[in-house]
Design a protein that fits this description.
It is a single chain. With 239 residues, the protein is of the alpha/beta class. Helix content is 36%, strand content 13%. It contains nine helices and seven strands. A five-stranded mixed sheet has the order 4-3-1-6-7, sandwiched between helices. The protein has a two-stranded antiparallel ribbon with strand order 2-5. α1 packs parallel to α4, α3 runs parallel beside α9 and α5 runs parallel beside α7. The longest helix has 17 residues. It is globular. The mean pLDDT is 90.
Length: 239
Amino acid sequence: MGKTINVVVTCTSRKTRDPLARFRLGNVRDKTIENRAVNWIDRLRTNGNSQTTASELYCGEYWSVVRSLPSAARDSGVRPSIWICSAGYGLISPQSQICSYSATFSRYESDSVTRGFDADARRVAAQRWWRSISGWSGPSGNEVRSLTAIARRYPNVPLLVVASPDYLQAIEEDLTGAAVALSRPGLLLIVSAGMRTFGKLTEHLLPCDARLQSCLGGTRGTLNIRIARRLFQYMGRGQ
């Protein structure tokens, strides 16, 4: 069956269907991040919208590369178990039943979690949001709701996290918990091109930057996931 690796990727703004207005985070007007999260979760619970699996909802270039990870890893004897860091739903799996939505940790988008917060408050707001959304039981087809929970369930399995700086800042506390829960520090690896420091988690960053785009191809927005795919392609060589 090969060696299993838990891989955390991020959601994408590209969906196979457009979200209804009430499932756009920009339409949630609460001022505090906690109230905003409560309102948002209530909307998702009573969605009244057709649902589909996350793997069928997400589309575009980024998700095309995510779908290719299992085949890229197969020749190296690796079996990636994929998890999704969703700004709207929290941690979900490709099989989770969700409705179309628009929410992101990317700071300049209209449906950003941290819209309305200044630069100093943005990081804290994103972390509070992730804490709130992770505390919700989540959609059907989903049992594990945090990265820390993944590490506790699979303490001896490598955990590869592929995310932009905005998403990493949001999940920083959760990632710290995961690092502690894993049986040894080397099991946690973070891919975020161009990010050189990350507090106590800096040692887990894989050195990589935009120069890799010239050999991996694709858009800048897919560089992180293309780096992950190349890692899988090379795993097992020399053994």
